[in-house]
Structure to design on (441 residues):
């Protein structure tokens, strides 16, 4: 059932409405809205999540206007067309019509709009009749080309993707070049350069995906079963972060694949050098099935770690040979402390690469992290990502990276180039205030 929130006329004093269409897009949008709030306490904001019910907005005090509803697909219509029929049965058409009415009313009352995501919120923003900005999170020219030119593709059908001269199709570029579109914020500098060829007001201000990743101070240096102790050769330890994704049940299936890779590394190096595995567990995942799978792979629960600086609470520690594996929700700290990622995730993998580190990915069954998704992620992230078809072959992939310092240096520079540096949300907020002529009170 569609859930209707407070009528728009009751909050008509607000000046900027943010549209987003997905879990990750909501988070990016929230960061930009918070940056706008820091610029003026009197600047009033609202949000309309096109997908889901906007839990991030609610939790941080951003009012939601219009109708919201969670759909059966969870927003993955584009990855699995079979989900479209379920969404239609679940009231997608009625929801869309109600949301279009809301954005049109917003414009009629003099508000402006910020769209975050893909063509769906962008189309909503254009439909509103208001001045609008667009944060394009879904597409990058790196999917088709790099700084040297077009990427090689295997089939004529794949090469057809470049037919319009950009990863953004002509109708998307028309929406971004419309006179009411005042600012476009693509993911990276390469995409900005291409969009500007069509007279699109594109700005290279970074990727908000890299904001909010500061470590919280959690340390696991003493957690591994390292007989050398704290005075041992710390430089010999290898730390891996495991990124199975955040959506059940797919994440649980990915977890089994990642543990196969972990087992291969432990068998190869477990008696030669200390290994530490940090499993960054999303809040929506249940630790019980993860723990059961660990036990099936021979890991034993050896205790828990309570760190006063870790707001996420205790962490479960599992041991095998000289190796420890820790289940934790301290995501940022995992990214910063790990040397490598064993990944089957979207955003989390991109964030790890953005920190200048190598990620090793494994194709799964989906619905998100399929072989097709993994191949696209390689194009997006370039040399920072290594695809390993079989988890048992991960050892040679890691060994190859360890023996190639030039490649590791290239990966470090590549991460910053493709994902940007932190602070993008604040830079985008400053530009929006100027371009959309938003009152600051």
């Amino acid at each position: 059932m569609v859930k209707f929130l407070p009528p728009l006329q009751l909050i008509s004093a607000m000046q900027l409405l943010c549209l987003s269409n997905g879990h990750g897009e909501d988070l990016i949008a929230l960061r930009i809205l918070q940056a706008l709030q820091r610029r003026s306490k009197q600047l009033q904001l609202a949000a309309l999540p096109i997908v889901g019910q906007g839990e991030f907005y609610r939790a941080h005090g951003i009012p939601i206007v219009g109708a919201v509803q969670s759909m059966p697909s969870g927003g993955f219509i584009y990855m699995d067309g079979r989900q479209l029929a379920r969404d239609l049965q679940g009231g997608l058409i009625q929801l869309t019509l109600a949301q279009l009415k809301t954005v049109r009313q917003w414009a009629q009352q003099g508000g402006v709009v910020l769209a975050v995501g893909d063509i769906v919120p962008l189309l909503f923003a254009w439909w509103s009749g208001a001045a609008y900005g667009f944060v394009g999170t879904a597409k990058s020219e790196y999917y088709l080309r790099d700084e040297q030119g077009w990427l090689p593709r295997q089939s004529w059908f794949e090469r057809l993707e470049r037919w319009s001269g950009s990863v953004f199709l002509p109708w998307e570029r028309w929406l971004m070049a419309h006179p009411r579109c005042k600012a476009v914020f693509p993911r990276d500098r390469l995409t900005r350069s291409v969009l500007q060829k069509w007279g699109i007001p594109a700005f290279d201000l970074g990727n908000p995906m890299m904001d909010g990743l500061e470590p919280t101070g959690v340390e696991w240096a003493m957690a591994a079963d390292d007989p050398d102790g704290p005075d041992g050769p710390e430089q010999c330890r290898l730390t891996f972060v495991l990124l199975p994704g955040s959506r059940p049940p797919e994440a649980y299936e990915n977890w089994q694949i990642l543990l196969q890779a972990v087992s291969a590394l432990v068998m190869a190096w477990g008696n030669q050098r200390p290994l530490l595995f940090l499993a960054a567990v999303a809040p929506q995942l249940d630790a019980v099935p993860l723990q059961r799978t660990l036990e099936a792979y021979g890991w034993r629960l050896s205790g828990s770690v309570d760190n006063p600086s870790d707001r996420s609470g205790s962490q479960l520690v599992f041991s095998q040979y000289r190796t420890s594996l820790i289940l934790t929700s301290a995501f940022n700290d995992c990214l910063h402390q790990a040397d490598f990622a064993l990944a089957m995730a979207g955003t989390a993998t991109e964030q790890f690469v953005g920190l200048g580190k190598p990620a090793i990915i494994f194709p799964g069954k989906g619905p998100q992290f399929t072989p097709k998704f993994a191949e696209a992620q390689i194009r997006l992230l370039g040399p920072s990502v290594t695809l390993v078809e079989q988890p048992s072959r991960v050892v040679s992939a890691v060994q190859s990276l360890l023996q190639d310092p030039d490649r590791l240096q290239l990966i470090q520079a590549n991460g910053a180039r493709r994902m940007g540096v932190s602070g993008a949300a604040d830079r985008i907020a400053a530009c929006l205030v100027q371009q959309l002529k938003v009152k600051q009170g």
User: Anything to note?
Assistant: DSSP finds 16 helices and 17 strands in the chain. Residues 250-269 form the longest helix (20 residues). The radius of gyration is 23 Å. The longest strand covers residues 112-117.
